[in-house]
From TrEMBL, chain A:
InterPro entries: AAA+_ATPase, ABC_SmlMolc_Importer, ABC_transporter-like_ATP-bd, ABC_transporter-like_CS, AminoethylPonate_ABC_PhnT2, Mo/tungstate-bd_C_term_dom, P-loop_NTPase, Transp-assoc_OB_typ2
Name recorded for this polypeptide: Putative 2-aminoethylphosphonate ABC transporter ATP-binding protein
BP terms from Gene Ontology: quaternary ammonium group transport
Entry's Gene Ontology molecular function annotations: ATP binding; ATP hydrolysis activity; transmembrane transporter activity
Source lineage: Bacteria, Pseudomonadati, Pseudomonadota, Alphaproteobacteria, Hyphomicrobiales
From TrEMBL, chain B:
Name of the molecule in the record: Putative 2-aminoethylphosphonate ABC transporter permease subunit
CDD domains cross-referenced by the UniProt entry: TM_PBP2
Species name: Microvirga brassicacearum
Stretches that traverse the bilayer: 20-44, 70-97, 109-132, 152-174, 195-220, 250-270, 300-324, 358-377, 389-410, 422-441, 487-507, 527-555
Major subcellular site: membrane
Record keywords: Membrane, Transmembrane, Transmembrane helix, Transport
Amino acid sequence: MNHISVPLLEGAPVSGAAAPSAYLKIENLTKRFGAFTALNRINLEIPKGEFVCFLGPSGCGKTTLLRAIAGLDLQNEGSIHINGRDVSHAEPAQRDFGIVFQSYALFPNLTVDRNVAYGLVNLKWSRADIRSRVQELLSLVGLPDQGDKYPGQLSGGQQQRVALARALATSPGLLLLDEPLSALDAKVRIRLRAEIRSLQKRLGVTTIMVTHDQEEALAMADRIVVMNNGSIEQIGGPEVIYCKPETAFVSDFVGHMTFLDATVLEHGRVGVGSLVLAVANSRGFAPGTTVKLAMRPEEVRTRSIDSSTTNAFEARVESLSFLGAFCRATLNPVDSPGTMIAVDFSTNAMRDLGICVGQTRLVAFPPEALRIFPHDSREMHA
Amino acid sequence: MTIGLSLPAASERAISEKQVAAVLIGALCLILILIIALPLWALLSKSFEDADGAYVGFANYLTYFTTPTLFVSLLNSLMVAFLSTAIVVPLAFAYAYALTRTRMRGRGLFYAAALLPIFAPSLLAAISLVYIFGNQGFLSYLLMGNSVYGPIGIIMGEVLSTFPHALLILVTALSLADGRLYEAAAALGTTKQRVFWTITLPGARFGVINATFVVFTLVITDFGVPKVIGGQFNVLATDAYRQVVGQQNFSMGAVVGMILLVPAAVAFVVDRIARRRQVALLSARAVPYEPALNRALDTFYMIFCILIGGAIVATYGVAVWASFIQYWPYNLSFTLNNYVFSNVEPSGWDPYFNSLKMAAAVSVVGTALVFSGAYLLEKTHAFPLGRAVAQFLAMLPMAVPGLVLGLGYVFFYNASWNPLSFLYGTLTILVINTLAHFYTVSHITATTALKQIDGEFEAVSASLRVPFWRTFSRVTVPICAPTILDIAVYMFVNALTTVSAVIFLYGSNSKLASIAIVHMDEAGAGAAAAAMATAIMATAIMVRMLHILATRFIFDRFQSWRRR
C-alpha cells in the first residue's frame, strides 16, 4: 500500500489546464422547504482541483446547496453530476466526498487516531496500513504526535485539523467545508486559512467551502459563488467579485459600499444631488433613468489631484472614526450638501495631510471605480 | 495522479442504509402498534360493546352514570384525588423549596428520605397505615373514633406514596432559577414576600401545575392503596378491578377505564404545554441562583423537613419493622417467620423471583428497544410517515394510567380471535405490558441525551461510508452509556413495584410480588404482605445504589474522554 503516500504528498495538477468537463456539475437545482424556496434553479460547474467558496448571508441557501451536493438534503428538482456520474438521487455514501462541519463533529469517545481512521477501518485495510496512513495524515495537518489524545483535550484549531485529516483519509474526490473556521479565534482562523489553502493546492482536491465571511472567501477561493435568497448573484474570481460586482447585492455584501441615488445623464455621466460624475461604464442605462451609484470608501483619491482631475469635488469632513490601519470618514460635498459619502483614509494619509473634522478637502473618485445598478435592485438588508 | 483509491462502488451494495433505516422504523411502528395502540383500541371499542360483543353505542356509559353504586365511585375518586392533591402539592413545594432555596444542612439526606416511597409498591404505605392507625394500631386514637379504612386511610396513603413524584417535579422547577433576577430584585430593594410572589412562584409555575396534574392522575388511577385500606369505600380503580376480575363485566370495566383516561390525558396535554413554556423561561445565559445563609429560615425549614421526611421514613419503617415481629400488637419479639411465604401463599418466594425476572427482562429488552427506537427517530431521516407514527405512539403511554393499559391488554390479548392470545397469563405479557407502561419517560430520557450529541455524526459517517449502525454502536452507545444505564434502572425499579397494570394479566405461573402482596393482605396475612413489600423495597434500593456505583465506574473507566 506504499503507493498511497506518494500521490498524496506529490500534489496533483491544479486547475488551469482546461478540464474536458466539470468535475462537479449542477443543473437547475431547486430545493423547497414547504412554501419557502431555499434554492432556486441553481446552475454551477466546478472544474477539477478548484477551490470554490459559497458566500452569502445566513439563509441565502449556501449550506442547503452544500448539503444537496453531499446528498444530506435531497433537492426537489435538478441534477448533480460528480465526475461525470449522475448522483442526483444517490445516498451520501455513494458520492465520494469528505466533509468538515463548523462543529467538527469529531467523535468525542474516540482518540484522534481512531477518528482519523474511522473511514479507513471500513476499507478492510491492514492494521499497519491504517496506522501509517493515519500518521501520514496527522503529519500533513501538523499534528504528528497528538494521535493518542481525545478531541476534548485539543484546542479548537487542532480539532479542526483533525476533522480535516479525517475527511481526507479516504482520499475523496471532493472536499466539502461547511463554515469550518467560524468557531475559531480570529488569529487561528487566519493561520488555518492559509494552511487549508496550501493543503488543498498540494492535494489538488476539488474543494467547496461555505462561508459568510467575505474576507475568508476573498483570501482563499479560486472562484467565489455569491448567493442570496436561494439564487446565485455572481460567480467569479475574488478580484472580479470585489472590483466588478454585477449586482448591488454583491457590491454591498463584499466590502463596504456607499449607495447614492443618481440619474443617468448623457455621455457616461451621472448626476448625484448637484454633483456630476463620470462613470467608466454606464451599462446601457438610457439617459434620464434613475439608478443607484455605488462607490467604495477606499477608492477615494486625495493626493496628487487638482480641481481639473475627473470627478474631483470639494467636501467637508463631517466625522472620523479611527479603525486601526485606516480612518473611515463621512464626507459632505460642498456643492451638494447632504449627499453623505463614506471614504477611507489610510492612517498614513491622515498623518501626512493632517485630515481632521470640519476640514474641507478636494477629493476625487476615478470613473472606473464608480458602478451603477438599477434603482430597484436589492442591497443587503441594512 | 489519483489520490482516490479504488473503493468498491457503493451502488453495488444490495440494500442501502436508507432502506435499512426504513425497515427498522417500520418494525418499531409495528411493535408500538402491538403493545400500545391496539390494546387501547380494544379498550375503546369494548366500552361501546355489550357482553356479546355487539355494538351498543353509549349504552354502557349511560348505565354507568345512572347506576348510583357505580357513579358514587367516580365521586369518591374525585374527592380523594382533590384532597390528596391539595395536601401533597403545597407540602412538596415547601419541601422542594427547602432543598433548593435554603442552605439548610442535610439536604441530600432529606431528599433521599422523601424519595423512599418510589422504591416500594404503593401498597406498602397502606399496609403501614393499617399497622399505625388500624383497629389495633398504636396511634388509632388520633383519628378520634374515625376509621382508617376508608377515605382517611386512602388519602393518607396517597399523600405518602405520591409525595416523591411531586417533589421530583418541583425540585426540578425550583432549581431552574436565574440568579440575575434575584440580584436585580435586591438591587431595586424588593421585599422578600414580593420576590417570592413575583419571581419564585412564577418561575416554578409550570412545575406546580405539572405536579398538580401528575399527583391527581396518580391518585385517581392508583389501585394499591384503596385495595388495602379502602374498606367499603369504592373508588374507580377498585371498581375496574371488581368489574373485570370479580364479575367478568368487561364492558363496564372498559367504561371505567375510559373515565380514568380523562384526567391522565388532560395531565398529558398540560405537561406538554408546560414543558414548551418552561424551556423558553430560562435562557442559556442564566446564572444559577445561590441561596444566602439565613439561620432562622434554615432552622424553620429543617424542622419542617424533619417532620415530613420523618413521617415518611417512620411510616415505611413501621411496615419493615412489622415484617420482623411475631404478632402485632401482642407479641413484638423478632422473627423471620413472616418471610417464609409458603406459610400463607402456596407459591412461596416464587412471586419475588418472578418479579425479579420480569423487571430484569423489562430492563434489558425495554432499554434496548427504547434507546434504539429513539436513535432511529432522532438520527435517521427515512420513512417520515413511520417516524411520525412511532413518535406519537412512543409519547402515548404517558397519557395512559397503568390500570387502563392493563385493561386494554386484557381486552386485546385475551380476545379469542387474537393469534397472540397464547401470551395471556405468561410472564412475557407482563414484560410487554410493563415495558409499554414505562415507555414514554424512558423515550424522553433517551431522546434528550441523543439531542445533545452532534447532529452531524451520521453525516460524517455517511461521507466516510461507514453505515449508521456502526456509528450507533461505536460512538452513540458509548457516549450515552450513563443515560442507557439510567433508563435500565428506571425500568427495573418501576417494573419491580408496579401493581395496577399487571393485576389483570398475571397467570398461575407468573404471579408477581406486588400481586402476592395484594393476595396475602386480602387473606389477612398482613405481616407476610409487609415482608414481601419490604423485600421488594430493599431490592429496589439496592439496585439504585448499585446504579450509583456503576455510573461512577463508567465515568472513571470508560468515559475518560470527558476529562479535559
